[in-house]
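re: ur question from earlier - yeah i can do the single chain one, its not a big deal. heres the input i used so u can compare w yours
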Amino acid sequence: MELFETAVQASRKLRLIDEAAINKVLNDLADEAERNCTYILEENVKDLALMDKENPMYDRLMLTEERIRDIAGDIRKVAALPSPLDILLEENVRPNGMVIRKISVPFGVIGIIYEARPNVSFDVFSLCLKSGNVCILKGGTDAHNSNTAIVTVIKKVLEENGLDTDIVTLMPAGREATAQLLNAVGYVDLIIPRGSQGLISFVRDNAKVSVIETGAGICHTYFDKYGDTRTGADVIFNAKTRRVSVCNALDCVIIHRDRLSDLPKICSQLAEKNVIIYADEPAYEILTGNYPSNLLEHATEESFGTEFQAYKMAIKTVVNIEEAIEHVSKYSSKHSEAIISKNRDSIDLYERSVDAACVYANVSTAFTDGAQFGLGAEIGISTQKLHARGPMALRELTSYKFIIEGDGQIRA
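and the output i got, formated as tokens:
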């Protein structure tokens, strides 16, 4: 338990560091990440060499110069954001003169369990540092070389700034380390899993430490009776093909039966990316002869409620918006859902009725992202309802405590 004890000690020290020093570390890290781009990419190539390029996780594992520049940009954005700490949330003066203040504070020590996504190492550290939290990283074996390189760069910056390098720890690869983290009661305040539904379920079912679920993304877009065809085609194409491996990628289009004749136009761009469509019978009939036959298949029950993470997509035909909402309710992972419509009543009904962390109207689900929401970066997309929901950034990485002051009040 030495690793966890040093993390707790580092947490106490971190709480005393002022915001200016924190921001300097973050800006220095952004610079250092760009300077060490070649080193990080060389280690990333070692990981990529061990993974099949057809694996949906390959794209998430891969780092490039452009992606590292984007990561550095996000770190600088986090540095520029106001601190989420010591914010006065509520204040109450009692009749006896006792003053009660509710203020935001760090969780303390946060454990992150994630798969082949080395960018998470940078994102998590920057958000945790800015919110006053120590982070313990448990990355997947698929990205171990990449994560080791990234944490080496982070620790170098911490040391150069005179901060405790135990503010961040990368745990060894393997299941034994995962088990230790899940059971670190009294040391770790919170665990956040990022990855497949299998990983998230495993963490939820086995952790003794409190967990915030960042769920898988089974995302739908409903094309309403009053939808605009051009808008629908562009939004659906972007949501499906921008990056198929990410959790906000589109998995199922729901279309009103009165607009089936527009389906070939809506799907035309998808053929350019060789998207395989699993269509129910009405949609299949319309797309036959209007979509490449080698990319068109009959939908089965398994086609719905599936996070494809590939150039694949299901289509469901409905008779009205109520049936669309029912379909979403049955198959959604409560991550991101969208409607394409020019009718205000349809939009209002969908937004009120759909239970998801993020509900869009005439917008691509690809925007479910902390940076896109103006949050700097994100530590994950929470699909639960306790404490945090949607993109989790600085404020979501804080708790609160009550400060009570007086001048000798005693209780009768």
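The chain has a mean pLDDT of 93. not sure if urs matches, ping me
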